[in-house]
Amino acid sequence: MNENNIAKVDFNLLKSLQVLLAEQHVGRAAKKMNVSQSAMSHTLTRLRDTFDDPLFTRHAKGLEPTARALELADKLDFILNEIDGLFAPPSLKLAQVHARFRIQTHDFIVAAYLANAVRAINAEAPHVIMDIQMMSQTGDDDLDAGKLDMIIGAGVKAKPRFMQKRLTDEAVVCLLDKDNPVLNSWNTESIFECAHIKSSLLDEQHDSVSQFGITAGMPARKIGLYAETLNLQLALLANTQLISFLPQSMAVQGQALYGLTVKACPFPLPKVTIKGVWHERHQNDLLHKWIRDKISAAFVSA
């Protein structure tokens, strides 16, 4: 090669050289490369100039490789396979992947959906460790800083730089003790006469029950107990006259665990939209996408 400069090498020439070495005949090589014989002869001339060597000598049956050509033959297959690999679709060997995937979410989402997703992920990717954290005020900053891989929450709003997917919409229902006397006269007025459990993380502006009461002109809402997480409300309802307003999946858990009663709310409340949010840098990451798909499937099958 006259100049040892990779920028001057046409890698298509290497493929032609590989075929010429295999066929040792210009005509057969041309047919295999789907070009004319004159084009292949021209390519051979370029190869000789590139490597500063005749590469082949002609004889009655075709071409005889020179020592330099035989030396190149030992390397060509490896080099061209590596180049082909650069353009091959990426693959994911789940059994060999070691990673930690960090999610911030609500407790009721873990119980209703993510537990099944984690089991499905671990079954196929045993070395992927899921790190489930409760929602915090630093979620967006943690996504930006790479300290968090995904947020799955109710009512979350994705920043412009984040990707998002709606996972499900849940109805809000009422949960109360099975002996609560309000069950004998179940209507909007009687519900607002009772004391409620309220999430201590929600202000009045973002509390749909409080907003309904204000809009409908109901008496001031009575708060009998504050609880930071929805899961705490389940154990606190038994043997009281309190009413809790929860996503349906959470209320069903309370019914199963504590024998509580689930009732449809007699006044309209907006559904709770649960979304997954992640940073755009992970949009095409194979492992991240695979885990997102597993999480989405868990919501669909729940």
Automatic annotation (TrEMBL):
Recorded GO MF terms: DNA binding; DNA-binding transcription factor activity
InterPro entries: LysR-type_TF, LysR_HTH_N, LysR_subst-bd, WH-like_DNA-bd_sf, WH_DNA-bd_sf
Coiled coil in keyword set: no
Coiled-coil segments on the chain, per record: none
Residue ranges annotated for the HTH lysR-type domain, each copy included: 9-66
Superkingdom of this protein's organism: Bacteria
The entry's keywords: DNA-binding, Transcription, Transcription regulation
PROSITE patterns: HTH_LYSR
Protein family: Belongs to the LysR transcriptional regulatory family.
PANTHER family (UniProt xref): HTH-TYPE TRANSCRIPTIONAL REGULATOR LEUO-RELATED, TRANSCRIPTIONAL REGULATORY PROTEIN
Protein name, as recorded: LysR family transcriptional regulator
Organism: Moritella marina ATCC 15381
Taxonomic placement: Bacteria, Pseudomonadati, Pseudomonadota, Gammaproteobacteria, Alteromonadales
